[in-house]
Design a protein that fits this description.
The chain has about 400 residues and is α/β, with parallel strands linked by helices. The protein folds into two domains: about 150 residues, Nucleotidyltransferase, domain 5 (2-Layer Sandwich), CATH 3.30.420.40; about 180 residues, Nucleotidyltransferase, domain 5, CATH 3.30.420.40. Helix content is about 40%, strand content about 20%. The strands form two sheets. Strands 5-4-3-2-1-6-8-7 form an eight-stranded mixed sheet, sandwiched between helices. Strands 11-10-9-12-13 form a five-stranded mixed sheet, sandwiched between helices. A hairpin with a 4-residue loop joins strand 2 and strand 3. Helix 11 crosses helix 13. The radius of gyration is 22 Å and the shape is globular.
């Protein structure tokens, strides 16, 4: 049984095709620069074929058509027919309060995702474009939506309500939603497997650190708090995002710099964080090299980044009343030795002690104390595939399909 996973951005489509009998990746790739005459589609197959082609791709329907063409190509394809694709799992960034789990996509679901566009104007329209294209090109395949926000929908109300007039929540849904839920879900369950205990018994802090970054407190398998909020801007200092700031800074800067609201929003999302502090860039590899070369602002950016993470680890241990495991994942969390060291430095009193030799070797278990420290590569695509497979199984077992 083959499942296609789609992650659609405004000008890109990432894809993976998995065989669910053994959860192996048959092919994966990306379509980039959608909307131009020089779009690029690239794919790697299980045979280690690497194919790359440039052509005009003006929209997501053409992009998905190109993907299907690559997957079924007579020379390097991995499908004899598109009918081999049993289901398509779509990453959807924002499901609001409407979705606390993955769902079969119907007209009503599409309408609800559309209503969430105002909460994720940069992401949900692209996700919807991918869904529309997939329904048109793969009409026989089951379509499933898997939401970044879903894992955080069981947070207690006191954790997601802001200190604003309650009417703002009732009228406009202003609350903490959280993101990266698929990643936090996956690595927290992998951590439980590694330690050999039921996740229901464990208190886990998962640190998804990449250009975008968030932390989740996972108590008994449930996300009880997370750093990202109403939007992905809240929480940690990130590659280009400022994270937590005093809200009064915004009107102050708007007046002093003569900025529009749009300009201020752009500043906080695209020109702040690591790039804003360092003036160097948002890539942690570049910042670490600059730090080693004596760049004080690069060093400061790293210190601010790690200090914020360390504070949240302490806060979430307090919120859960204990801690069994800290997980590092994402591009930075999985690969940056220095960052992992700095993020837990000084937390030895909590039982969080890192083994520097294991850390230097990028081993999976970095622990040297009672609290486990794990480095777990995330696999959001596999999680989406598993969720999609389960809904497909339920559909096949439904009475209307078994009569």
């Amino acid at each position: 049984m083959k499942i296609l996973i789609l992650n659609c951005g405004s000008s890109s489509v990432k894809f993976q095709l998995l065989e669910m009998t053994d959860e192996s990746v048959i092919a994966k790739g990306i379509v980039e620069k959608i909307g131009t005459s020089s779009s690029i589609i690239s794919m790697k197959t299980f045979r280690d074929d690497n194919i790359r082609e440039s052509r005009e791709i003006l929209n997501h329907t053409q992009a998905l058509s190109a993907v299907i063409g690559f997957l079924g190509h007579p020379n390097y394809g991995v499908l004899k027919s598109r009918d081999e694709i049993s289901a398509v799992g779509h990453r959807v960034v924002h499901g609001g309060e409407r979705f606390s789990g993955s769902v079969k996509i119907t007209k009503e679901v599409i309408d609800d995702i559309t209503k969430c566009i105002e909460l994720a104007p940069l992401h949900n329209p692209a996700n919807l474009s991918g869904i529309t294209a997939s329904v048109a090109l793969l009409p026989e395949a089951l379509q499933v939506g898997v939401f970044d926000t879903a894992f955080h929908q069981r947070m207690p109300k006191y954790a997601f309500i802001y200190g604003l007039p309650y009417e703002m929540y009732k009228r406009w849904g202003i609350r903490r939603y959280g993101f990266h839920g698929t990643s936090h879900y996956y690595v927290s369950r992998m951590a439980a497997q590694w330690i050999g205990r039921p996740i229901e018994e464990l208190k886990i802090i998962t640190c998804h650190l990449g250009n975008g970054a968030s932390i989740a407190a996972v108590d008994g398998g449930i996300s009880v708090d997370t750093t990202m909020g109403f939007t992905p801007l809240e929480g940690l200092v990130m590659g280009t995002r400022c994270g937590d700031i005093d809200p009064a800074i915004l009107p102050f800067i708007i007046e002093k710099e003569n900025l529009s609201l749009e300009g201020a929003n752009m500043m906080m999302n695209k020109h702040s964080g690591l790039i804003g502090i360092s003036g160097v860039g948002s890539d942690m590899r570049d910042l670490i090299k600059e730090r080693e070369d004596g760049n004080e602002l690069a060093a400061l950016a790293i210190d601010v980044y790690c200090y914020r993470i360390k504070k949240y680890i302490g806060a979430y241990a307090a919120a859960m009343g204990g801690l069994d495991i800290v997980v590092f994942t994402g591009g930075v969390g999985e690969n940056a030795v220095l960052i992992r060291t700095l993020c837990v430095q000084g937390l030895e009193f909590m039982g969080i002690v890192i083994d520097e030799q294991k850390n230097e070797n990028n081993e999976n278990d970095l622990s040297a104390g009672p609290v486990k420290i794990f480095r777990i590569p995330t696999n959001e695509e596999l999680t989406i595939a598993r969720e999609t497979h389960e809904i497909l199984r339920q559909e096949q077992l439904s009475p209307e399909n078994t009569q």
